[in-house]
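PROTEIN ENTRY
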Amino acid sequence: MILLNVEKKDSRLRNRELTEKKIIEAAYELFAEKGFKAATMRMISKKSGSNITLISRYFGSKDELFNKIVEIKFNKFNDFYVDYSDAETYEELLDIFLRKL
């Protein structure tokens, strides 16, 4: 019985992660296409296939959802940042860059 409870929790967690991802992707596309002000929670809800209440529960508000997207995009950029200060030649610079990819 305990094993079934753990499996249910794992399933719910995976479903939540998938739903959050769909919401974030829908919001990102709408913010990019229409702008922050013009993109509404109702539009995000429709595009993501989630209801507004669920979006609010997961992210709080449109502002917080936008902040989450900025955080995700910044982290992707930050992960790509490479310290090139050790490179003494173009070959070393290219090698450092390619290793990061």
About this structure: The radius of gyration is 20 Å. The CA atoms of residues 41 and 52 lie 6 Å apart.
